[in-house]
Amino acid sequence: MKKTLLYSLAFLLLVLFSNCKNVDNQNDNTNEKTESVSFISKDAKINVFYFHGTNRCVTCNAVESNALELLNQDFKDKLDDGTIYFNSFNIDEKENKAIAEKYLISYSTLLIITLDSEGKEVVNDLTDMAFQYAKNQPDKYKELLKNEIDELLK
User: Fold this and answer.
1) CA angle 121-122-128, nearest 5°?
2) Chain-centre distance of CA 44, in angstroms?
3) pLDDT tens over the chain, length 154 residues
4) 121, 46 in Cβ contact below 8 A?
5) Residues near 129 by Cβ (< 8 Å), separated by ≥ 6?
6) What predicted TM-score, i.e. pTM, was given to this entire model?
7) DSSP string computed for 44-105
């Protein structure tokens, strides 16, 4: 009985997770043209990008809505003056294919992108943390995201 329940739970989690991933393996190689294109705001110190598909689960929505809530509550002045830039991209839409290819995105992903001292992009993937906490522990998610942003603002 316990094994059956455990297997059922594992299967349910697998189904839920795979629905969220929305994997598209049609183009595993990045386009060299895309590599040279910049999608980040050069004026921003921190670029927060959330990538998602058209069909979104509750957790996918929670990742974005809680990030936006945090940014608007704790970093409103930084959003307003352009220090922090947020954008959400539907990777199923044609106009977002190039950015999805550049960052090798094929499922819901939360990235923080900054520039190093030489002007090269530094990509910090917070997807695992976001999906672990955004829905069931939103305060913890916001705290961890805030800590990441505070560290980058130093």
Assistant:
1) 135
2) 17
3) 555 444 444 444 444 444 454 444 333 333 333 344 578 887 899 999 999 999 999 999 999 999 999 999 999 999 999 999 999 999 999 999 999 999 999 999 999 999 999 989 999 999 999 999 999 999 999 999 999 999 999 9
4) no
5) 141, 144, 145
6) 0.77
7) -SEEEEEEE-SS--HHHHHHHHHHHHHHHHHSHHHHHTTSEEEEEEETTSGGGHHHHHHTT-
DSSP bridge partners of 112: 48, 124
Q: What is the CATH number of the domain that holds 70?
A: 3.40.30.10
14: CB partners within 8 A, 6+ apart: none
Residue 25 forms part of a structural domain: no
| Domain coverage including residue 68 | 37-153
> Which residue type, as a one-letter code, is found at position 102?
K
| Structural domain count of the chain | 1
Query: Do residues 133 and 140 make contact, with C-beta atoms less than 8 angstroms apart?
Result: yes
For residues 122 and 83, is the Cβ–Cβ distance under 8 A? no
Backbone angles phi, psi at 34, to 5 degrees: -60, -35
User: What is the C-alpha end-to-end distance of the chain, expressed in Å?
Assistant: 53
